[in-house]
Design goal:
This protein is of the alpha/beta class and 302 residues long. It is built from 12 helices and 13 strands. It has helices at 46-56, 71-76, 81-89, 93-103, 119-125, 127-130, 150-161, 223-230, 241-248, 269-282, 287-295, 298-301; strands spanning 15-19, 40-41, 44-45, 61-66, 107-112, 135-138, 142-145, 164-170, 180-186, 193-201, 212-220, 254-258, 262-265. The strands form 3 sheets. The protein has a 9-stranded mixed β-sheet with strand order 5-4-1-6-11-8-12-10-9, sandwiched between helices. 39% of the residues are buried. The protein binds 1-O-phosphono-alpha-D-glucopyranose. 1-O-phosphono-alpha-D-glucopyranose is lined by residues 119, 139, 142, 179-180, 201, 213-216, 240-242.
Amino acid sequence: MGRKQFNMAKTKIRKAVFPAAGLGTRFLPATKAIPKEMLPVVDKPIIQYGVEEAIAAGCDQIIIVTGRGKTVIEDHFDISVELERQLESRGKLDLLAMARQISNLGRVAYIRQKEAMGLGHAVLMARDLVGDEPFAVILPDDVIDATPPCLQQMVSVFDEVQSSILATQVVEGPAISSYGVIDAKPTARNPRIMEVKALVEKPKLKDAPSKNAIIGRYILTPRIFELLETTPLGAGGELQLTDGIRGLLEHEKVYGYSFEGTRYDAGDKLGFLKATVEFALKREDLGDEFRAWLQGLSPLKS
Ligand code: G1P
């Protein structure tokens, strides 16, 4: 096995890649002119939850893979001079601090994916910006409420296993066919950490090797880039990240990690509604009033 050696004592996950070029067809008509990554859960665009998670996990370089119609994502993480000037002159210092905090969220680089050729292709676009070091991938649609944040949990596992890690959760029934699915064996030291034996993208229910679905958080070694270069197109005629990771298995260990926390598929209407309600209920400034209002809703009483 030609296992690539990193000097793990010095290796830190510094870079997080955010594929954000998808068309968001599951959320039409809202996403006709607005990127799905900018849909707000309560008052924050879903991509900002992911960026804050990456920074909390110690990443200081954010790489966003965008496409046509996504420039408002760049504007969101940039300084808004007019807005800041107005907030300052009106003495709205709390809002000013919030606006500044967003543009100070670490270094953000953008690269365009010119054609929607799949998640593996989107990750491959980040190759030059990532270079030869392990890195994180965050799929912004997957908003995860967890303490510590999901990526931080995975970074702790990476410190231990020094290999690629895929976040997973159990998915029951036919919904499993919407995911990458792993066949894995729990490790003796921690059953949440599983050694991956095989993985398949969007299997039919009868072909799914387990109920452990891949969720949108990955830590990958840079070998993934050379593998993605030669991975044939897979499910849906797209270059699948899952297929590239299957290639990794021939060279190094890959782990599944069943994270602690709740994941919302915010790219789906129902998942988005659930995230909105749960996050609003947790807000200090809104939660009590919102809870009281929800409890009084007449359709819930019948
Ligand atoms: C992608 C991945 C899939 C993974 C899922 C998690 O699928 O290809 O392996 O399980 O994200 O959200 P998509 O949701 O882009 O179809």
